[in-house]
Amino acid sequence: MAWLGTWAKRRKITIPDASVEATDTLPIAIHLGTAVGIGSTDVTDIFDDLGANYKKIALTLSDGDTETVVEVERWDNGNEKATLWARVLVTNGADTELYLYWDATEGDNANIKDAGDGTAIWPTGTDEEYQVVYLMGDAAGDIVDSTDNSWDSLSESITTYRQDGIGGRGYALDFESAVPDFIEIGDLALEDNDLTVICVANAEAVTASGTLVGLWPTVDVFLLYAKDQVPDRWRAMIYDNAPILY
């Protein structure tokens, strides 16, 4: 197995093929902390060695020396937590292996990007055609789009930024319905196109119907929302003259 240059240390990251429905290139979140991954592994030695120097890391593909670009959503060395994002070909039929390197003596790695600066990860002109990627790691103000489409959203009434994400991983925004809190993207002009929406959310309390992601043109409507109803709390609705519930 090849080794990346003179980097001092590395850990192998394995994505089991059983967790992959079909071979595809997908966004992958890598969490670092005291109990992460399938085996609840403690990887805080990375923070012990690097402290706040998160650009002293590298991520490679299975060969051990082909780097891939990483966007850092969160690096909290005080609490020894981090969330990294990469776009990786994951396979069904064989495990997908990656290697995370770190070395405090290395120079800053140009392949490690700050949140909102990972345009190389999210292609906008290929079959994947990412339109918007929000990692929710902003400290204040508008929410920055990580793609080069630059669909930075307008935040409305958001007062709580950089909340601990689900399970204490990554960052999140806190939306309160009473205000109401929301972020506005604008018109993406996606009519007549297939669209995939991925949203990670935690409905702490739902006293009415709360929309997670919604599209409101003049006729057709798409809603991914949480409803004050147990157990069927999470719902999606497509409205084209008549509603279709999922």
Automatic annotation (TrEMBL):
Protein's recorded name: DUF2341 domain-containing protein
Lineage: unclassified sequences, metagenomes, ecological metagenomes
